[in-house]
Amino acid sequence: MPDLAQAREKMVERQIAARGIHDAPLLDAMRAVPREEFIPHHLIEFAYEDSPLPIEADQTISQPYIVALMIEAAGVAPGDKVLEIGAGSGYAAAIMGKVADHVVSIERHHELAALAAERMRRLGYANVRIVEGDGTEGCPAEAPFDAIIAAASGPSVPDILKAQLKIGGRLVMPLGEPHSVQTLVKVTRRGEDDYDMENLGGVRFVPLIGAYGWQDHRAETAPKTLPQMIADAAEPLPNFDHPDFSALFDRYADAKVILLGEASHGTSEFYKARAAISRRLIERHGFNIVAVEADWPDAATIDRYVRRRPARRGEERAFQRFPTWMWRNTDVDDFIRWLRTHNDGRVPEDKVSFRGLDLYNMNGSIRAVIGYLEDVDPEAAQLARERYNCLMPYSRNPAAYGAMAITEGYARCEDEVVRMLKELQQSRAEYVGIDDGDEFLDAAANARLVKNAEAYYRVMYRGAAESWNLRDTHMFETLCQLLDAKGPDAKAIVWAHNSHIGNAAATEMGVVREELNIGQLCREKFGKQAVLLGFGTHSGTVAAADDWDAPMKVKTVRPALGGSYEDMSHKAGLSRFLLDLRGLGAELKAALDEPRLQRFIGVIYRPETERWSHYSEAVMPRQFDGWVWFDETNAVKPLPGEQKPGEDETYPFGL
């Protein structure tokens, strides 16, 4: 559990004062009021994050900065009488109670009003009174007020509230449609019927419901909650081996590229689902490339196995580097064996290839380029050795090359690896005449990987966005080259993490961190011919490590954070489902279009810091075309370290 007093002080310094809030009594009040007392117990560790949080009655507690902004804009000062509309948890009322003499806070939800009143009694805020009722009517019995603050957005500022201001009094509230960007306004009463209005900028708030606000249609028609709407629109998924499971994905089969995600790199259900969907797409719909978030040389070993091509001299067994369990697991093993059987008896051009898109295994790619050239052009092979010699001291630990380049201030090996790729490409016509073209494609991809890996390990020390973008651009370009090489009938299935295959432009990673990814690049190039399918889970177990290069552990996945897309999916009450996001009804689309947190678990999982390290904001209907849900999931099972008796010695997962 973090030191909450220290976290509160940091919140005031970094989130409030650093953004231009200078009112000293207000800053002191925010240092004094414990926000953790105003949120559900399971969210205490997130009490001082720079974000709103879910509370009871499907409402939220506002972002601390917004609370401070509204209070300062309203000019709340010692000696004031203040009216708040929308008590919520009572946090803002408590802050104002530390500054003003008297605060009346109205809340229409019985549950919230009761909880807020109990907190005021327990925490000793005797000058704050919580009233249950319609806040749009104000509190005429205690008017006039020095300040009125509404924590909900209405269609206009109600005249009945303006009339309850003192002359010189200030009213601050958001105006605008629900589920949209609203405008925060400040109204100052100058005379009996004279008011000024000032625009304070864009905000997002829940709707102001009441006689002088928006009508509560829920009371009349009892509309469904978001989980209920998801449950109605979702299509339950049967077991993986049932033919109806994969048949549900036929609707996407007209695409050229289908990207299948995962919310973690160590969840068995995600691999099983992708395998079942891929088998259907290959058998029924002509998909002929499986491209995965794995290094090219490792996947090339698998590709030789599934297409029964001869192994290359000196080729290492596949996926022996961390994280081995990501691809060396029983679920991938089953799919690889099926793919080899599927390819048997087919002519070479009709066989499905298994390819890697990533760029980490620089050492394997260097050896592959040299090995290829030894067969087709021994003199060029010797030249390649000389050019790659610059990188060889770092081939097993390429991050050390990046550190060296930063220290020395220049890219020592850049020119040589670029020249090697250019000369290999210039020899294409000559080399392809020696083999069937597949070997040249492999060599060229490895040479390009070395070039991009050299750049990647240099820029990784300069900034996360630059290195991320270089890596995903490399993966996208590799995918495009595979499609081009396969010809006009090429259709690819991509297996990669949600963070790579969902459209980054609809997520915090793209909007805030300026990162792009394969999904975004595919959407821009292929339009509707690219289908992006995200996968999610609520709880269970996952194979992951505590840190990079640390041992794999089977870890318990914490239940999804309240208010997140995963939480809404869990509350839908279905154990597994497909939600097609392309044709949603207007009401469900509007609800899902609200930015929400989404969980991302990679090869590293730190449950104790999950909110900070594994959640990011997204807008799901713009991020994915479909959402595949498994409420409870299990960790993948790594393959044993020994070759199975009687196994073909070329089997790629043997040791």
TrEMBL record:
The active site is at 62. It is an enzyme of class 2 (transferase). Residues 66-191 form the Ribosomal RNA adenine methylase transferase N-terminal domain. This is Protein-L-isoaspartate O-methyltransferase. Keywords: Cytoplasm, Methyltransferase, S-adenosyl-L-methionine, Transferase. GO terms for biological process: protein repair; response to antibiotic. Gene3D superfamilies: Biosynthetic Protein domain, EreA-like (biosynthetic domain), EreA-like, domain 2, Vaccinia Virus protein VP39. It catalyses: [protein]-L-isoaspartate + S-adenosyl-L-methionine = [protein]-L-isoaspartate alpha-methyl ester + S-adenosyl-L-homocysteine. Belongs to the methyltransferase superfamily. L-isoaspartyl/D-aspartyl protein methyltransferase family. It comes from the Bacteria. It comes from Allosphingosinicella flava. HAMAP family: PIMT. Its EC number is 2.1.1.77. GO terms for cellular component: cytoplasm. It is found in: Cytoplasm. One of its GO terms (molecular function) is rRNA (adenine-N6,N6-)-dimethyltransferase activity. InterPro entries: Emycin_Estase (IPR007815), Hydrolase/PRTase-associated (IPR052036), PCMT (IPR000682), rRNA_Ade_methylase_Trfase_N (IPR020598), SAM-dependent_MTases_sf (IPR029063). Catalyzes the methyl esterification of L-isoaspartyl residues in peptides and proteins that result from spontaneous decomposition of normal L-aspartyl and L-asparaginyl residues. It plays a role in the repair and/or degradation of damaged proteins.
